[in-house]
Amino acid sequence: MKKTFLIMAVSTTIASFGQNQNPIKYPTTNKGETVDVYFDTKLADPYRWLEDDKSAETGAWVKAQNKVTYDYLAQIPFRDVLKARMEKLWNYEKIGAPFKEGNYTYYYKNNGLQNQSVLYRKDVKGTETVFLDPNTFSKDGTTSLGGLDFSKDGSKVAYAISEGGSDWRKVIIMDAITQKIIEDTLVDVKFSGVSWRGNEGFYYSSYDKPKGSELSAKTDQHKLYYHTLGTPQKQDKIIFGADQKRRYVGGHVTEDNHYLVITASTSTYGNELYIKDLTKSNSPIVTIVDNFKSDSNIIDNEGGKLFIETDLNAPNKRIVTVDVNNPKPENWKDFIPETENVLSPSTGGGYFFANYMKDAVSVVKQYDYSGKLVREIQLPGVGTAGGFSGKKKEKILYYSFTNYITPGSIYSFEPKSGTSAVYEKPKVDFNSEEYESKQVFYTSKDGTKIPMIITHKKGLKLDGTNPTMLYGYGGFNVSLTPSFSIANAVWMENGGIFAVPNLRGGGEYGKKWHDAGTKMQKQNVFDDFIAAAEYLIAQKYTSSEFLAIRGGSNGGLLVGATMNQRPELMKVALPAVGVMDMLRYHTFTSGAGWAYDYGTAQDSKEMFDYIKGYSPVHNIKKGIQYPATMITTGDHDDRVVPAHSFKFAAELQEKQTGINPTLIRIDINAGHGAGKSVAATIQENVDIQAFTLYNMGVNVLQKLNN
């Protein structure tokens, strides 16, 4: 029997082959004459026309750019080899943690290469049936399941679907017992969950449909609605948001069905908090927190005793209790006090679980409802644990565990005894014992110590020639914790290094760490990323000729700004779905809600000058050789609209000096990333790795052994 595997080979001959292509002939990108005035500065925006996602001209530009990109990728001799290996490694059964609704146990399963995972269920006799198969939603796999919620007795379910990767959802209501759709589909739902009140109806959130393009027009007044089963959507009652303009509004019903909890915010950080007593007719909405200076949410209740997760006066978060009749912050009492590590709590089985991040890895402690510490849970290793949640009466809970070299496994957990057992361990063709993952701390420009986890094959030679992927994010209080990825496994089994620094702007060390990478401290994030690259080079893990930088969304901004500021530092740049036009980001869809992190160019001349100083679109200069660049985006991205990437690509193609390629790869009928099919995800990762290795001059050869 033949066995296929891949080898990395670097030599003087091979090292130059990726750079000897014929010059790329890029599509012509016409320039317009749009000029904006910011305070006393006039600024041209020649590619403003690319913001019109409905125009034939933009469509033709997308088609022309994709032809150039895919023609380039097709010439890479080992692209198909990479795809074959990635598909083989990806092709294993994946099963999610089970959850009970009514008389059934539900769980997600993917047989390996299915585009979307299938929701199965078992009855009390253990008979397995398919409940929802998103692979049947569309022929091309671009319609995905965007979430679901069961009524209190499990007899009904409302599930959301996303078409073409859009954040706009449709909600379908079904009888869970008969699996028959029971009424008209709700439309135009966005940034929303579904939360049932008993079995008669549910709460959801959305915006009014914008004028113009639904993919790019501004949406900034979110409203909470209540839908009563059996009535048309046009009769749905607005519960919150009609008179108060809030960009993000959410509502959920407590497990005992007694209270509606409402959160409202104007940005991605800080929220007001409200509660409504559902046991009393016409009860008022009561204000708990009336400002946006903290993040607070009710995570559980015992009768009228509320348990609130908050970072008010606790940058690393704490849990407090308060009586529902006097719920203002001055009456809050510590239940689980703040510690030096960031808290992310959950509830289930009649207990609280305090999941702490200690230098970006998990430590989990279990508490009872009196606040007494029951135990610290012994995790399977050093990495990321998640889950420990469920209904109060559950006897068994589930949690996941993973790190950069350990495929995600699911464990059952008995909260009364503290016993864990393997529930589902995937059979992946990857030997974790051959790899190592270690955390280092390096010094950023201003002296701040930054953690970074570096993962690679054991026995790696530190000679500066190792292909290295430096991945970062650094924003919105998002924490990058260790997790396994098939794409990264393929990268590493071919000798690559995968390095992830925990940059400021993230949430790894709480609110202070987040704030240190926002507004006029945003440059700290880029400095942290640059210092990570310099550390890897200084320690001989890699060199500038073998370094790629990668990030998506806010991480795409990170890559764009870094390659502008230090173009000589890396060989390859891979910005994905990035926020590239920082002067106009707030004019699209829900972008204005990002102002807590970024500020806006309209805030002040000082803020305008600062943002303009790093905005990727506005800092590309003629006469500079930028790294080989492949920008990736989706034509239906309505979170970070593709115009950001389009304009960045046009500027870079015009001003790039030298032979390094500047390509943009645009997925059709795809959005910001959620719900992307397995086939599309594999192909994107293959193309990114093939482009990266080809431009580093590293050849991936196929070798067959008997």
Automatic annotation (TrEMBL):
One of its GO terms (cellular component) is cytosol. Residues 482-696 form the Peptidase S9 prolyl oligopeptidase catalytic domain. GO terms for biological process: proteolysis. It is found in: Periplasm. Keywords: Hydrolase, Periplasm, Protease, Serine protease, Signal. Its main location: periplasm. Its EC number is 3.4.21.26. Cleaves peptide bonds on the C-terminal side of prolyl residues within peptides that are up to approximately 30 amino acids long. Has an absolute requirement for an X-Pro bond in the trans configuration immediately preceding the Pro-Y scissible bond. Belongs to the peptidase S9A family. This is prolyl oligopeptidase.
